[in-house]
Design brief:
Oligomer: heterodimer
Order of helices and strands of chain A: EEEEEEEEEEE
Helix content of chain B: under 10%
Number of helices of chain A: 0
Number of helices of chain B: 0
Largest interface: A-B, 18 and 21 residues
Amino acid sequence: KQEVTQIPAALSVPEGENLVLNCSFTDSAIYNLQWFRQDPGKGLTSLLLIQSSQREQTSGRLNASLDKSSGRSTLYIAASQPGDSATYLCAVMSTDKLIFGTGTRLQVFP
Amino acid sequence: DAGVIQSPRHEVTEMGQEVTLRCKPISGHNSLFWYRQTMMRGLELLIYFNNNVPIDDSGMPEDRFSAKMPNASFSTLKIQPSEPRDSAVYFCASRAGGSLHFGNGTRLTVT
């Protein structure tokens, strides 16, 4: 059974810092991995999608990497801003089901 | 593109009542997913459909939960009878082979 873990559970950093969020999964047989952002009281917004054959994806200040063999992904946020404050979730697609981690709650203070 | 539309946004009901949550997926998306989110368990997949057909309902917690997708543009999740432990945010999401798109959720409170 696929299990997805995210570390740390919460993170508080000053504006301008570069930071890394971690995601690990137990079964390396995945189709893809997605990173989402969730703001309080809102749904999830897809940030990056990495196919199983890819190593990384970039969008603006965000970079996500995937190491399928070790069951790990990282989300790198460059030059963090207060507007980046949210919960970040990773999810892996296994046998057509998207399994979510428990998320990292990020707060960026001015 | 209006995105995935869920209704109602909030639902407060008494224990024992029937609750129906509604979802309109993005036009052209052939997969639809129902998730439940709680503080204790995070996001749990309840059921998903491909081309209106239920594929995997192993996440549905009990027989009190049922889901239907009568056509490509509409799905319902029904809880009957509802219990306080069903209180959560219920999300619907749709996909067309790529990334998953979520609605804003229905916050259900059962008293």
